[in-house]
Amino acid sequence: MTLEMKGIYKSFGANDVLRDVSFTLSGGEICALLGENGAGKSTLMNILGGVHHADQGQIFLDGTPVVFQTPADSLKHGIAFIHQELNLVNDLAIYENMFIGHELKKKGGLLDAPRMIARTKEIFEKMDLDLDPRTMVRDLDASYKQIVEIARALLMEASIIIMDEPTTSLTEPEIRRVFDMMNTLKDSGVGIVFISHKLREVMEICTRFTVLRDGNMVSAGDIAETSIDRLAHDMVGHDVRTKSLRRAHEVGDTVLSGKGLTLEPVFRNVNFEVHAGEVLGFTGLLGDGRSELFQCIFGARRGYTGTVAVDGRELRIRSTTQALKAGIGYVPRNRKENGIIKDMSILENGSIVTWARDSRIGFLKKKKIADAFNRQEQELHIKLGSVKDLIGSLSGGNQQKVVLAKWLTANPRVLVFDNPTQGVDVGAKEEIYDIILKLADAGVAIIVLSSEAQEIIRVCDRTLVMFHGDVCGELVGDEMNEQAIMRLATGGQV
Amino acid sequence: MSEKTTKKNFGAWFLANWKNNALFSTGIALIVMIILQTIALGFNYDSFGSWFTAWLSNWLNILRNNSSVGIIALGMTFVIISGGIDLAVGSTLVAVGAITMSLMDATNGGLLGMIGITGIPAYILTILLAILVGVLLGGCNGVLITAGKIPPFIATLGAMKILRSVTQHFMQSRSPKVPNDFLQIASFKIGGQMLMPILYWLFLAVVLYIVSKKTVFGRHVYAVGSNEKTTRLSGINVNLVKLGVYALMGAVVAVAAVLQISRIGAMDPANAGSGYELDAIAAVIVGGTSMSGGKGSVVGTVFGMLIIAVMNNLLNLLGVPPFLREAFKGAIIIAAVLLQRKSSDN
Asked: Which residues form the ABC transporter domain (chain A) (predicted)?
């Protein structure tokens, strides 16, 4: 099947989201749809998926014009949309999830489980997948959940599958598994749209690409004829720095150190120290224990053994409140769950850490708090309408800056960044790196936790690499490169 | 032309507020309810003066009769905004009430009389002890919920049963009498009217409004209710905030207990305060506070309480049989939540 979207226009109110965008896809292709947040990728795919309607333009399937009024329409024409937040019910078995909404029934109206299981097995066989349809979805890892979604798309006889950032929450081996599946599908003639920010993955798995910027189509072509730098350039509209940002600087005294930190089975015998003005990386694959390690140090988790010292003084931190007092800040991963409070304003989100400090007999000093946030807003170039708007009115990058702002107003001595550029676009990413380096120059000790080797190489002075809870190596300066990091992170030696 | 645009602007302004501002829509609902009630009261009077007197005394009655639940609902607002619930308030009221009455029993001087404290000092001490007991009982719920990690619904359901039963057991052969002077706390008349309960309610509403909007504790309550994890990761002691919420609830219930005793002069351990928890929760919900926490306001709760109270009065004026009135109360709770859900979805 070939898909052609021609001259698509779409606006929401006065906001033009898509202007004269065309997109093509044939069976047996994996086409990357690239662009920063807000470039119009989701809108374009939502039009294809029948969620939105184009103001102008047409969609052709095998040359015949089609109109999708609803997602069901689109699915009927063989187009399946796998959203980033998966649509599976954890407490049901795989086969029940496969058939949810159109269950097979026996004559009496009771469910026909054997037939549903058999059908699911057939699909799995086609996909070369060895999985029991009766397994509970809860017991699957994230990649298999993704694969069950794909299987469901095939059950609906989809010939075009849209995958919205399918790899964001997957570990390396899981990504491999999903990629293998995508290749199998490609070879069997299914067309796949792959929406992603990860250019490296795009280069690896895709055959073609389309780049959107500010609602316009800026480039399209074969992956074989482009490069990461070119794609990144097209996405942001100017050259993106990919070189290390490390600079000559003086390292101060040790600010935070850990000795023999252990929490079985998550991490064991971790030793480290970080100095004022230094950017220390912690990297590894998902499940390496680095997030849990720093949640312990920050007082958000308990039960570990070993000692933590701030400025050489041993501390027993039992709560986040104590960590804050000790001068430790923590910018968490998963902004939506851990970083922002959705019912509160931008100002409140950006100042909550310092409320207790900026108050008199329990009453908030409104002006002082507003002034402090205002300074951060200028400093970090946070783009916002009014500070009284809800935090959700901001883009991902700006939300992350607000989360940063709340910690910066607390003047921490050590600031831990856990996956600091998750879900922010390329431009905001660069700004966050700049902020991290500026803080280090101002004498703050910085710790960056990330599984993106590129990120570690770019901002860190040195990095510790973890594997299943053990620190299995340290790389300093130019020793940091993707091969070395990957070797250590997968349990190998330098 | 210009008139047309103002009209259109007003329409848009009204619609935007109706959809997005919970306080606005509850306020409008309350105004509509008051207009209906005023019409139902009728205009069949000789003069404006006599109509106004009738209207006013009807209103004072409404406010007075709902002051206890109204006060409890103020505390409940904090509990629900923090993401919890407190089913024990009715039982806490009766427990605090029993202790309060035993402390200054008029028949034998009470427990305080036995150690030689009588008169005004005894009353002041009694009130302070009552509030302390309220804080402790509420605090117990808080400890169960935070340290014991028991869901608030279950912890307070347990407390509800325990407190009621223990109070009934110890009070079964006693019937303490409230000293006459103590009755003045609620019954002191201003301009020939018993206004004190209304003033206490109003005063607490203002204080708790300020606490919810202007203090670190108040804002922390909203933060905990909206996203507990983020709040903890912002260096805030979430357990302490929750403990504070339930202790505050206990204190507020103690105030309601003292007020109720001094207004009525007695307290029946089997029935006093029963059903208050649900009435208070209903007021909070009708007032636009979200059961899932993080959203709501003290002012909304006052509106919610008034909407229910005025509707009750309206049904009474219209001669709707008493047994049927609860059905209307149920309907208005459901209607309020339906309206609010619509507004948050948009």
From this structure: 3-239, 240-493
